[in-house]
């Protein structure tokens, strides 16, 4: 038997509760069984736990879009008992039982070998948010390399700066020598954001309302986890030839933008998908995270909670009340 969060949809309504399951109940479609040490609570997990959006596609469902742990049994040629692994995406926690549990059975093709220099806790302190931030940074790095843009040649905007993606993105970009402008709706977090490397902190209200289709050029690049008017304004104020990496929708799924920044300033909008990203890109992202992220800053970004606490945390993250990363010790 093992502990797990389980989402059901009985006649009385949507429900998420902590319960015990038998290993025999794990999905038969998986070929690798993993003993989980840590998972996380991401924005998508918040949607799944609360039912605020139809993230969960089948019931019952164990939520949790990522986890880190150790293989206990494998019918997959790449993995054997004792291997340390992590997983992000592939519909886990949405269409396939996920990581907010002490055990999981998944497809071996979805797993990434945990870098030797990362512990399971550190890997999930990063989690899908940190991995997504790294994918954004990698897209910008490639853009700069192709365009011949040198490090430190202009400001880089990070929106939703106090969240998981934003916190890791600030740390990564500042560590690479870039001048980071952090946009947040929580001015009380300014000192925290500066401690991660932000040079300037602005209020999200500067970007969150409808704006002009073409605005003053302010930054060479953007990491955006917010969407909607924020993303539109970020694009409208990106410098000529700049790039925007979009990975989130905290403000909304819409993009009320104009073609003006794209055809008059030649900016590029990169869509960053973490769920179905090719394995080579995943491995490159995790290898880069293991090498480049400041461990002291990672510790400052992270708050550890237990499995039972993850239910309340789902509501908190949707309300914008979570700073940085929530790592879930599923055995606590």
H and E string: EEEHEEEEHEHEHEHEHEHEHHEHE
Shape: globular
CATH topology of the largest domain: Quinone Oxidoreductase, Chain A, domain 1
Our count of helices gives: 10
Output the CATH homologous superfamily of the largest domain: Medium-chain alcohol dehydrogenases, catalytic domain
Contiguous uncertain segments of 5+ residues:
none
Our count of domains comes out at 2
CATH hierarchy, class of the largest domain: Alpha Beta
Helix share, percent: 25-40%
Assembly state of the chains shown: single chain
The CA-CA distance between the termini, in Å, is 16 Å
Walk me through the structure:
With 332 residues, the protein is α/β, with parallel strands linked by helices. The protein has 2 domains: 2-114 and 294-329, Medium-chain alcohol dehydrogenases, catalytic domain (Quinone Oxidoreductase, Chain A, domain 1, Alpha-Beta Complex); 128-271, 3-Layer(aba) Sandwich (Rossmann fold). It is built from 10 helices and 15 strands. Strands 3, 4, 5, 6, 7, 14 and 15 form a 7-stranded mixed β-sheet that branches. Helix 7 (260-264) links the parallel strand 12 (238-246) and strand 13. The chain is globular, with a radius of gyration of 20 Å.
Quick rundown:
The chain is of the alpha/beta class and 332 residues long.
Features:
single chain; 332 residues; alpha/beta; Quinone Oxidoreductase, Chain A, domain 1; Rossmann fold; 2 domains; 7-stranded mixed beta sheet; 6-stranded parallel beta sheet; 27% strand; globular
